Structures are given as structure tokens and as C-alpha cells.
Amino acid sequence: MNAQETVRLTRLASGLTVVSERMDRVETVSFGAYVAAGTRHERAEENGISHFLEHMAFKGTERRSAQRIAEEIEAVGGHINAYTSREHTAYYVKVLKENIGLAVDIIGDILTHSTFDPRELERERGVILQEIGQANDTPDDIVFDYFQETAFPGQPMGWPTLGKEERIRALSRAALMEYMHTHYTTTNTVIAAAGALDHDAVVELVERHFADLAAKPAPAAEPARYHGGEFRQARTLDQVHIVLGFPGVGYADRDYYPSLLLSTLLGGGMSSRLFQEIREKRGLVYSIYSFTSPYTDGGLFGIYAGTGEQEAEELMPLTLEEVRKVQEHVTEEELARARAQVKASVLMSLESTTSRCEQLARQMQVFGRVIPTEEIVARIAAVTAEDVCRTAARLFRAPPTLAALGPVSKVPGLPLIVDRLAA
Fold this sequence. Notes:
Elements: H1 3-6, E1 7-11, E2 17-22, E3 28-35, H2 49-56, H3 66-75, E4 79-84, E5 89-96, H4 100-113, H5 118-136, H6 139-151, H7 165-170, H8 173-183, E6 189-195, H9 199-209, E7 229-234, E8 240-248, H10 256-267, H11 273-280, E9 285-295, E10 298-307, H12 311-326, H13 332-349, H14 353-367, H15 373-382, H16 385-396, E11 401-406, H17 414-422
Helix pairs in contact: 2-8, 4-9, 10-13, 10-16, 11-12, 13-15
């Protein structure tokens, strides 16, 4: 039986999508609800509400207290968690296969019958404010928020996922309930499961435990409008944290796979160009890497480096030289290495029921279908050196974004960076 025969899809009359993959060689099952509601779906006065809502989901329902939710899952050796991104919020659980009924019950209960107890809400508000404070005190974390805000200024895609302190203090119980009622709908949610399961049984459980999920359309997100620019903040730190970026590509873009290989060979590992040239040969950094952040309608491509105040002046021209060279030539040897790394990452992720569950949901939300693994591998294999150079030229000739935090006096400004990129 091939992989596609183990994947099944059902669309319920309510509009809810249920997708699953049976994995016969495991004894566990991962189950999750993936809601297309994240930071980019918020209004200005709501910034941080998606993440706040994720926190509150575990704080009690009409049938379960916060303690009981934790005890029921841990009594069967399971794990429950959630996360918020710019485009969606996920609630997921991993249990032994015989406990799938409990998993669906609890996630369904959380999404349809949370009570938002006022006392729990105030406690969790304090926890989130602590989380924001921790992020602000972690320069190699918060610099990415500054980078995002500079790339997408004055719009939801640029706002921090955690929200700003003043917004979190102002969010009310009524606002949380209204946001959940508006965005947590059957047409905006994908239910995914992977592991030792029976699809029909999962569908029956979902029909029962998600029956009260609102069956209506959810508001569309505001389109992302990349702008770019420069942000720098002087802080007394041992290192300056730098993120240099450009507009990237979305999941469905024809250059999605070339951009993955570009990121890998440019700064994706110890054999990458940036690591070898800037850390190994010159010792200018401890950490340097490139990354892609794809969205449904675009994305970001970035390079992060942490370096000393004096080294920053030398670091940037060298980085820009590597950015220039990758637009002109890529060897077959490094392309083969990048292909192997990306392919291995894809295939290794399939060994985890949780990763596979998330992948199923994302593919349904972006493409409306589950993409066979063979198709993904074929697309990776089909990327040529010319594709990578062409994609690099497409990305790196766009207006850049620079964010720098720490002793920033030696970090070259955006005008110099633009001149170097144009040379």
C-alpha cells in the first residue's frame, strides 16, 4: 500500500475538513485542530489576541477545569500543546492509539466550550506579560520582531505575535470570546490526525465533539504589503544582533523549492557559504544562518548574524559579497548537498506523527489537497543551479530590510547596503 492510499480526506456537511494519515508502524496518534487565525487576522486594538486566546484555551471549559484538562491527558501518558503563528493557531495532542477518543474530546471541548473564567484570564494575562518581558530581554529573539515590523510596517503582518504590553493589558474577556466566535469556524479550521488510527472512526469522533463549532465563513486576512527599511536600537550588549532580509516567496510560488535550496546552500548548515566564509575562515561570528519564512501570499528571506561591535563593520560587506556571488554561480556539488539536506529534512519529518499531522493541515489550508511525498521529492530534485541563481536574483534585487540590536555603531546603514547590492 503506497503513502497516498493511507491518506484520507472527508469534508463534513458543516464545512469542517478532516484529513488523516494512517502510519502502521507506530503505536501513537497525533490529533490537532489548525485554525487559520493568527497575528495577520487581528485588528490594531486586538494585537496579541490570537496568542492570548491560545493560552486561555487550556484554562477550563464547561466540563473541565484547567487542572482536569492536564490531568486527563497526563493520566494516559499523553502530551497536549498549542502555538500561534502569523497565519494560524494550532491545538494538538499526542496519545497512545487507544486514547484517540479522549484526544478528540478534549480538543473539541477546548475549541467549542471554553469558559474564559475571569480569574484564570487575569492570571494568564500576567503570564503573557512575563513572556513579553522575557522576549524583550532576549536580543536574538526580539530582533526578529523588529525585522518583521520593519519589513511590513503599519499592518498586521508586521505586528508581534505576542502583542504589545499595553494591548494585552486592555484585552477583555468579551473581546476574546468575540474573536473566537468570529474566527474559529468550520470553514476556517482543518482537523488533522496521523498515526495508528482509523479514518472513519476519527471522522465520527470529530462529528460528535466539534458539532458546536460555528458553521460560517471567517473574515479574510489583510494582504501583506512588503516595504522594507531599517531599524536599529543601541543596547549595552556583548554582541550586535543583525537580521538582513528581503521579500520572499509563498508556499505556492514556483520559486518555493529553489528558495529552500538557496537558503540551505547560502546559510543552512556548517558546509554553507556563509558559515564557511564568515565563521570558519574569518572567525567573525559564533552564529550565522539564512532562513525562509513563507506565507500564503508571499514571505521573507533573511540572514541572521550575531557578532562583536568591531567585527560588524567587516561582517556586512562579506555577507553582501556572498549574496552577490550566489546570484551568479552555484556549483553542482553544493546544489546536490542542499538537495540532500532538504530532502532528508522532509523525509525525517514524516517519521513524527506530530510533524506529519501539522503538514497535512498546512497543505490542506494552502493547496486544498495533500501533496504526495513523491511529488515533493521530485520537485526538490528538479531544481537546477540556474533556478537557484534566478531565484537569488529575484529576491536580492528587491529593497532590503535591516534590523540591528546591540552595539550598532559599526553596522553599515541601509544606503551602503543598497549600493553594494546594486554594484
